[in-house]
Amino acid sequence: xxxxxxxxxxxxxxxxxxxxxxxxxxxxELLSRHAELDEAGSIxxxxxxxxxxxRKYDYGFPNIIKDQExxxxxxxxxxxxxxxxxEAEQKKQLDFEKTLEDxxxxxxxxxxxxxxxxxxxxxxxxxxxxxxxxx
Length: 135
Description:
This protein has 135 residues and is mainly α. It is built from five helices and four strands.
């Protein structure tokens, strides 16, 4: 198998289903009605729950500030509505992780020694020892 084919297969495994995308859109809509928003109308995420901790990455916890009880009921109803979809996505994620751990029979071509740029001996030795460079 060629490396490009293997990577394409992994990408397909990770790609969410259209139904899961629909779930995420409905969840985002629900959050936008109940969570704290910035000036642009985007949901503000925090490192901790209930609006605690400064967020450092593009994920985190929203701070629910409008009608917490209504939000929790609607979120539970949404998860119930998409239960099979969520289970399928979870299974797909587990399959993806299992695939990453499996051995893959990938054809790699050796690089001719003449094609290498000038390298330090230590780096060159690593390439030769791994069989990446054809000496």
